[in-house]
Amino acid sequence: MSKTRVYELARELNLSSKDLILKLNELGIKVKNHMSTLEDEEVNLIIEILTDKHEVKDDENKMECIENGNDENNQVKSEDIKIISVPPFITVKELSEKMNINSSDIIKKLMSRGIMVTINQQIDYDNAVQIAEEYGFLVDKKEEDDENINILDEEDDEKDNEEELLPRPPVVTVMGHVDHGKTSLLDAIRKTKVSQHEAGGITQHIGASVVEINNKKIIFLDTPGHEAFTAMRARGASVTDIAILVVAADDGVMPQTIEAINHAKAANVPIIVAINKIDKPNANPDRVKQELTEHGLVPEDWGGDTICVNVSAHLKTGIDTLLEMVLLVAEMQELKANPNRNAKGVIIEAQLDKTKGPVATVLVQKGTLKTGDVIIAGSAFGKVRAMFDDKGKKIKKATPSTPVEVLGLSDVPEAGDVLVALQDEKKARLIVEKRKEKYREYKIKQKQKISLDELFNQIKEGNIKELNIILKADLQGSVEAIQQSIEQLSNDEVRIKVIHGAVGAITETDVMFAAASNAIIIGFNVRPDSKAKSLAEKEKVDIRLYRIIYDAIDDIKAAMKGMLEPEFKERELGKAEVRAVFKVPGVGNVAGCYVLEGKILRSAEIRIVRNGIVIYEGKIASLKRFKEDTKEVLQGFECGIGIERFNDIKEGDVLEAFQMEEIPR
User: Fold this and answer.
1) Binding-site residues
2) Annotated binding residues for GTP, as ranges?
3) Is 240 in contact with 326 (CB distance < 8 Å)?
C-alpha cells in the first residue's frame, strides 16, 4: 500500500503544510509534522472532507478508519512545528543558516534537481520550499516589500517636508553649434586650458566642474552639446536646470544652434544665450539677436524674457556677468533639495577602469552620499569605497548638486541610470536581483513609442494629448509649408506640435531627439542614413517618408480618425554607391556601382540619394555585370546600372533599390 506525505497532500489541496496539519488535528488525525505519512484510505477521506464531497456524520465514524487515533502522544502541538520565513529569492547560504543545515547538502539536493548553484547564488521561492520541506520545515512566504523594488523608479520618491528643503547650486549644460566656442567658454569659466590638451587625450576630469562666484557654486556638465543632453533625457534622466546657448557673434544662428534651442525647449529648461567671439572684427551681436527672435528667443533688451550676454572666451570678458545671470535664473527657479535623507542621484558617465574597477560619475540630486553607503544604480550595486570631487580630491560626503566620482559598484551602470543609497545591503541585493529579472520588461515599457498606426487608440485611451513631430525636408520652404499645414490639424483632443524642423537627411541626432520626446519623424524628399535607421529600429521610433506634402497631411488626418490603413509597404532590397559614370552612345549615362548592402534586382524600383536628399525615383533600365545582362547583383560586387529617363547621375550618389509590397487589410 502506498503512502503519501503530509506536504505532498498539502500541495495537491493547494494548502500550506501548516494549515493542513491543523485541519488534520481537528479531524482527529494525529501527525507529527509535514514529513509524516498517511495511508491511502486516510488520504481519500481527507480529500473528500476538505472538498465537501463527503459528509462525515459523527466523530466516531471518522475515528473508525484511523488507526491509533486515541494515542494522545501523537497529537502535534502547532508550536512544535518548525517554521522558517523565506523571501521570493534567497541565497543558498541564507537558507542553510535558517535551517541550520550544511550548505553543501543543500547544493547536492539542488544539483540532483538539475539546478547548478554556488553558496552565494540565489534560488527562487519554489525551490527553497521543496528543499526546506524535505528537511521537515514549514515555509512561510515573506512577501517582498514593493516599496523596496519601486525605489528604483524615478516616480517613487520620498516626499520631503518644505522646511527640510535647503537651496542647492544650479546644474548647467553648455550647448550650441560646432566651432562656436563651447569648450573655450567652459575653459574660460574654469580658468583652465582643457581644450589645448583635449586632442592628446591628456584631460583628466569627471564630466562635471564646480565653479564659485560670489561665494555661490554653479555645476557645469562637460557633456559635449545637445547629443549627450538628449541621450540622458532619452533614458529618463532630467539633470539640467539651465542651458547656456553659445552663439558666435560673427557667425549667427546655425542649424545645430536651432537643434539645441529645440532640445532645451522640449526639456522645459530655461535658456541663457552667450553671444561669444564679440572681440572678432566682424562680430554683430544685434544680428544674432534678430535671428534668435525668429526661433522664439526674444532678448530682454528687446522686450522679451531671454537673457543674452556678450562674452569673449578668448579675452575672458563678460564671464562674470554670464555667471551672475546663471545665479539670477537659478534664484528665480528656487532650486532646493533635502540633504538629510538617503542620497539619490543620476549617473552622468561610467566606465570600467583597469585598476579601479567600475567607476561612475554621479550627480547627487537629493540627500547626502557618504563613503560606506550601500548604493544601487540600474542593475549594479555595491558600497561606496571612495569618492573624488571634480578636482580629483578624495572626499567623504557629497551634498545635493555635487558631482563625484564613485568607486565600489559591482558593474558598470548606464549613463542616465538613477542611483539610490539604501541602509540594508541584503535589501540592495534583493532589489538588484528583482531589477535584473524585470529589467527587460521595464526597459520595454520605458521605450514604448508612439506611431501613426497606434495614434487613434492612444488618443481614445487619453494617453496622448500632444503629438510631437520632427520634420526634415529637402528645402527650407518645404519645412515651413509642411509645418504650417501639420500644426493646423490640431483639434480638441490632441495638439500637433512640430518640435524641430530642419533641412537635410534624417540623422542619429534626430532619432535620439524623437526617442527622448516621444515624437514621430516625418521626412519629405529626404532619407535616414544607415545609423539613423538602425537606431530608429532599436528605439522603436516611427519614421514616415513622403514625396508629396498632401500625402503626409492625409496620413496624419487619417491616423487621428483611426482610419489609417496603409495598403503598400516599401521593402528595401539594397544600396549601391556610384563609383564612376560612363557615357554610352544612344543610351545615355550609366552608373558604375559598388553594392554596399543587400542586393540590386533588375525588377526593382530605384531611388537616387545625393547628400541625404532624394533627387529622383524611377525604374532600372539596365543591370549589367561585365557587359552581360543580369537579374541581380549581390553585396560586395560591382555592376553597371542604367536608370529610365534619368541622366544626371554623379559620382558619390547612393542608389537604393526597393520593391512595394501589398499589405493585406
Assistant:
1) 176-183, 222-226, 276-279
2) 176-183, 222-226, 276-279
3) no
Specify the pTM. 0.55
DSSP 3-state assignment of 366? strand
Q: For the residues of 532-560, what is the DSSP string, one character each?
A: HHHHHHHHT--EEEESSHHHHHHHHHHHH
Torsion of CA 406, 411, 413, 419, to 10 degrees: -50
Do β-strands 397-398 and 403-409 pair in parallel, antiparallel, or remain unpaired?
unpaired
Kindly state the cell numbers that stand for 415. Answer: 549613463
Query: Kind and range of the H or E element at 573?
Result: strand 568-584
In one-letter notation, the amino acid at residue 277 is K
- Angstrom distance (rounded) from CA 541 to CA 448: 9
Instruction: List strand residue ranges (DSSP E) for 215-286, in order.
Output: 216-221, 242-248, 271-276
Q: Is the dihedral of CA 535, 519, 228, 239 positive or negative?
A: negative
CA 250 to chain CA mean position, Å: 38
* Cα separation of the two ends of the chain: 64
Residue carrying C-alpha cell 533625457 = 233
Q: How many residues does the chain have?
A: 665
Do the Cβ atoms of 382 and 408 come closer than 8 Å? yes
- Per the structure block, which three cell numbers stand in for 462? 487619453
Q: Which domains does the chain have, with CATH numbers?
A: 3-80 (1.10.10), 83-145 (1.10.10), 166-336 (3.40.50.300), 344-424 (2.40.30.10), 452-566 (3.40.50.10050), 569-662 (2.40.30.10)
β partners of residue 299: 306
> According to the model, what pLDDT value does residue 438 have?
62
pLDDT means over runs of 10, the chain (665 residues): 73 75 72 74 70 44 42 44 77 87 85 77 82 83 50 49 83 82 81 44 57 86 58 63 89 84 84 90 88 88 88 87 91 87 86 85 89 85 87 87 88 82 77 66 52 68 76 85 85 82 89 86 90 87 87 82 63 93 87 94 92 90 90 93 91 92 60
Cα 273 to Cα 648: distance, rounded to the nearest angstrom: 44
As a whole number of angstroms, the distance between CA 414 and CA 378 comes to 7
- Cα dihedral sign, 92-95-97-99: negative
From residue 270, alpha-carbon distances to 226, 266, 339 in Å are 14, 11, 25
Q: Count Cα atoms within 13 angstroms, Cβ side, for 31.
A: 28
